[in-house]
Amino acid sequence: MRATGPVGQKTMSEDFDPRDILLYIGHGSDNAIGENLIKVPFMRAVREAFPSARVSWVHGSGESQFQSILKPLSGDLIDEILPDYTLEDSLGGILGWPALSQRRRFDLVIDTQKRPQKTVRLRRLANTCFISATWNYWFSDRRPPAGFFHSMRLTERLFALVAAAAGRILTPPSHVIGLPDDIVSAAAKLLPDGPTYIGLAPGAGRQDTGKMWPYKEYLAVALAQVAKGRTP
Q1: What is the rounded CA–CA span in Å between residue 74 and residue 177?
Q2: Where are the beta strands (DSSP E) in 102-205?
Q3: Domain 20-166 CATH superfamily
Q4: Is the model's pLDDT at 138 over the cut of 80?
Q5: Who's near 10: CB < 8 A, 6+ residues apart?
Q6: pTM, entire model
Q7: What is the torsion angle, in degrees rounded to the nearest 10, for the CA atoms of residue 25, residue 27, residue 29 and residue 35?
Q8: How far apart are the C-alpha atoms of 125 and 134, rounded to whole Å?
Q9: pLDDT tens per residue, range 59-100
C-alpha cells in the first residue's frame, strides 16, 4: 500500500505487523486523568490490532497517570512507559533530533496530538510507519481506510489512527473499562447490596479551554438517575 501523506511515500504491505510501537500522547492537559481515561479504548484497539507488539507509551512531561492512579487500568495494554519526553515548539526544538532517536527504532509511531511542531519532530524518529492526524494526515504514511468518517469525538478520532496503522476496518473496542478485583472488593464493602449505583466524577483538567461542563448539568444527570431508581 502506498503512503497517502504528501510527506512520506513509503511502500507498506497489507499485512503490516509491527513489533515495536510508540504511542505519543503529549503533555499538559493531554496527560490529565480524564484525557488518559478516554484513551483506554484506544490502547485496547492497539493491543487487539497488534497483539504481539511491544507497546511503549510516551506522555510528554511529568509522571504518567498510568504510573499512578490509573495504573490498575492499563493491565497488559502498555509494556513500557518511557521517561519524560517534552517536545519543544521552538524552531530549534523542531530542527533538533528527538532524544529517543539516539536509542531505538520503532516499527510504528502513532502521534495522538495535533500540534504540527511536535508532529514534525516526532516524524524524525527512526520508524517504519508514522501515523498522525495533524493537518488531515498530511504527515502520515497512511490514512484511515475508506468508510471512516470525520468525528469530533476523541475516542473515534483515536480509533481512526489505529485503523490507519492497520490499513483495514477494525471492530471498535468496548468502551467498558473493567476494574481490578481489589477495587471491586473495596467498593462492595463500602456500598450495601441492593441499589444500582451510578458514579459521577465532576471535574476538568483545564478550566481555561471552555470545555468544562457546568456543575448544574452533573446535578441534572444525578437527579435523572434517581428518577430511574438508581443511586448516584
Answers
A1: 10
A2: 106-111, 127-132
A3: Glycogen Phosphorylase B; (3.40.50.2000)
A4: yes
A5: 2, 3, 128, 129, 141
A6: 0.79
A7: 20
A8: 16
A9: 766 677 888 888 888 888 999 988 756 565 554 454 455 555
